[in-house]
Amino acid sequence: MRLPEPRSNLVPGAIVRLGGGVRRIVAPNAGLMTGPGTNTYLLGTREIAVLDPGPHDDAHLQAITAAAGGLVRWIIVTHTHRDHSPLAQVLAKQTGAALIGRAPPADGRQDESFRPDHSPGDGEALVLGDVALTAIHTPGHASNCMCYLAANERLLFTGDHVLEGVSPVILPPDGDMADYMASLKKLETYDFERIAPGHGAILPRGKSMLALLRAHRLGREQKVLSKMADLGPAPLDRLTPAVYDDVPVERHSWAALTLEAHLIKLVRDGRVTEDKGIWRLNRS
Questions:
Q1: Is the model's pTM score more than 0.90?
Q2: What SS3 string covers 254-265?
Q3: Domain 218-281 carries which CATH code?
Q4: CATH classification of 15-215 is 3.40.50.300, yes or no?
């Protein structure tokens, strides 16, 4: 099952009001893996919480502080990949805001400058001025991924767990496909309507997007098994173009990471074995 193509044309630096006390500013870091750029969300009216301040970029820092009006009290990160959290430390030093999020895992892909003042527990209620959020631990893309639910707005901030038009890359060994699937199922139990993703436009039918993502990943898993049956024992670099023949070649280096995450899950499920980089289907 294919995900709907992204249709957004977001403009970096523009302040867009999304309802209630929620505004969005897109960072100027558009690219292959970041789409139109990282979404930074400003929450609140009297005191401001900044969610995912983004990469260390002076123009983006100025846009955030100008929009916030000097009232930044909290800085929240969904996870510590380098397109989401590096500006947090700089913004905190400038404003005195408290840092909220989970510490970076040691996988070499993280923003190691992020040191939270508070690490929220799964399901924890956060009251930040006139904003109330529920923190939801959603490992998968990375082990420290958190989603934040603004129940009054029925709006779920997902970071890279849910994106517009694409399925996020799962980055082993810290990223985990089984965890990702479980986190999708977990989010279905919460009451929300819209999704505010880390990249791309607001998704108006959030629960439908979760179902599409789950079906997409299950469909890809079946394709992995089918191609392994056709190819026989094979290394990752041979499996990738077969399993991702529907994805542009320039994305295959990233697709290989998600494929490895699928294979690791299938090993745990007892359906695949691996020996010295060769993956083999277990035939019943």
A1: yes
A2: HHHHHHHHHHHH
A3: 1.10.10.10
A4: no
